[in-house]
Amino acid sequence: MNLSVLRGVERKMKMQNALLFVSLTLLIVVLLNLGVVAASGNMAISSQDKGVVQKNRGDSFTVSITFQNTGSSDGSWTVNVVFEGDSWNWKGTDKSLTLNSNEKKTIVWAGTVPSNAPVNSIARLVVYYDGSFKALDWWIQVVPNAVLSVQSSSVT
Predict the structure, then answer these.
(1) Interatomic CA distance for residues 139 and 118, integer angstroms
(2) DSSP letter (8 states) at residue 26
(3) What are the pLDDT digits (tens) for 89-116?
(4) CB–CB of 81/125 below 8 Å?
(5) What's the rounded Cα separation, in Å, for the pair 112 and 104?
């Protein structure tokens, strides 16, 4: 091979190495940024338990959630809860929440299962706050309002 071909190959390898270096640098910056964004979510949420609650159409329910500011300074958030399902949804009312560092507060919402919610449908509780959300381990399952029970029987 002649010298000009070798220099061309060498330039191409240098360019590829430079692109690889820039790509790795950008990847590191993105990963560090994600770590900072995740660390800035200084609010802990506790629903105290989990499970499926069975309700009839039109039944009332209460959602109680304890929030804590796990950061080192005071913070304010707008919070709300939603039951989200394939067949029906219910949305609470936005509430303002201001907490000092490490302070806890419990917020309560009252709602009603929609009267048009299909029997056996399920909706999951999700908390929304300032552009973020957290799906909690609570579901409402709509059960039939009519319940059949055997009152008496006879055989002759």
Answers:
(1) 15
(2) H
(3) 999 999 999 999 999 999 999 999 999 9
(4) yes
(5) 27
